[in-house]
Design a protein that fits this description.
mainly alpha
């Protein structure tokens, strides 16, 4: 393996002034090393496998926790594909301070089976805002857990 001229020639100040040249020299230095290339490929394979496994675990937990959401989204997707449901323009158009952004999405206000196809057409920005408002209302409506009654000792 040959040492690139960029790393051996000049002083340290020259190397710091031209980071692009320094980086290119390092890349050239490792380009001819098959061991290094093999290590890089193994590292990438490990990272990708860990990412896939982690994502699969997350999706399995999410599906187990929220079966109603999964079924509601599937129902909307099928209804849109078969022409049973059509999304209109963003429902928040004209709302003060709202500027529509992007394509419309289907927003569920409830994931009950009767409401699976009862959706609101919202742009991405409005959809995120509506979800935030919905979570805020849900948090406020949750009561603090009741304290356990004091046990009386015999």
């Amino acid at each position: 393996m040959k040492v690139p001229a960029v790393l051996t020639a000049g002083n340290a100040a020259d190397l710091h002034e031209a980071p692009a040249v320094q980086t290119a020299g390092v890349a050239d230095f490792f380009a001819d090393d098959p061991d290094f290339q093999r290590q890089v490929e193994q590292y990438r394979a490990r990272v990708q496998a860990a990412g896939r496994e982690g994502n699969a675990r997350y999706q399995a937990v999410y599906r187990a926790r929220h079966p109603g959401r999964i079924l509601a989204r599937r129902a909307v997707r099928l209804a849109l594909a078969h022409g049973v449901l059509k999304l209109g323009p963003c429902a928040w158009i004209g709302k003060p301070g709202h500027v529509c952004a992007g394509d419309v999405e289907a927003h569920h206000s409830s994931y009950a089976e009767a409401d699976w196809l009862n959706v609101q057409s919202l742009c991405r920005r409005a959809h995120l805002a509506a979800d935030r408002e919905q979570r805020k209302v849900q948090r406020k409506s949750k009561k603090a857990p009741a304290l356990l009654p004091l046990l009386e000792w015999p």
